[in-house]
Amino acid sequence: MTGREWWRPEALARRKAxxxxxxxxxxxxxxxxxAEGFTEVETPCxxxxxxxxxxxQAFRTAFADPWGGAExxxxxxTSPEFAMKKxxxxxxxxxxxxxxVFRNGERSPTHHPEFTMLExxxxxxxxxxxxxxxxxxxxxxxxxxxxxxxxxxxxSCDPFRPWRRLSVAEAFAEYADIDVLATAxxxxxxxxxxxxxxxxxxxxxxxxxxxxxxxxFKILLDxxxxxxxxxxxxFLHSYPVSMAALAHPAPGDPRVAERFEAxxxxxxxxxxxxxxxxxxxxxxxxxxDMDLKQALYGERYPLxxxxxxxxxxxxxxxxxxxxxxxxxxMLLTAAETIDEVLWAPVAxx
Length: 349
Known about the structure:
There is one protein chain. The protein is an alpha+beta fold. The chain has a single domain (9-163, 232-341), classed as BirA Bifunctional Protein, domain 2, CATH 3.30.930. It is 36% helix and 21% strand. The protein is built from nine helices and 15 strands. The chain has helices spanning 9-35, 81-89, 127-145, 168-176, 192-201, 212-224, 279-297, 305-314, 325-333, and strands at residues 39-40, 46-47, 60-63, 72-76, 94-102, 114-123, 150-152, 155-157, 164-167, 234-237, 249-250, 253-257, 259-264, 267-274, 318-324. Helix 1 packs across helix 9 and helix 4 (168-176) crosses helix 6. The longest helix has 27 residues, at 9-35. The chain is globular, with a radius of gyration of 20 Å.
């Protein structure tokens, strides 16, 4: 189903059971966070900086000054991250929200230009606590939906069993026979030539223009992601530090960062960081990402100077995570496309 005529009674009838699961899942999420002592917050969709991941494309608009001043460029946020971290700097300790977020140029069975992101933060917590949160939350959602497993196409996994915890290096070794960290002796200038040679060895095509990160993702998408989260969900953790612009380097190994992603049935479900709190290092990473965005796409987004000021003022050590709520409902209902679990898809497509 696309966004065309989703309002017809027969179209709604086909989605109704899945949408009822969505409603029960929202209720389960609110109950989970209330029991954990979290405060639900709301932050604006319109931001000066939409999020600075180089490959994400934002929707741009303009604020018309009611007093006759110049229009101000604003963006629909790709994540509520910056605003939520400002609340941590203001003194909040456990916060969550169900945010509407926007990413231009994205539409596929698991992508939608406007979608729901479930994001939460704990001060004084680490990634182990966030993994525990994800396991407990998904189990609560499955119980509310009345299902014993998550399903996608012909694959399934049992969220009630202990989730597997697998490092990126272990995953590359197991599924691609590559020592990926050996190709990144300098964490900020990894050896693209060496990783390209490894990719060619296992039959993955690369081009002269590919950077180390490009080759990493080709291998990840082709050889690793399809295997993740079958039977039981998996946490893929300890990403190369160059791929975690908002995360702390891991203590004991500067090549990797405090980051994990959760997978179920081959679907990326959540992305978590041990949050970077050094404003100078954060600025350096943001500027490097915008230089890359300029080189690749011919544009750059403004830095959120207010966010950098919040870091400088003393944002506490914390961990945060973003979970794709619509994807969770897809897995709970075995939906084939994300549009099946949306009350009203974005028109077109």
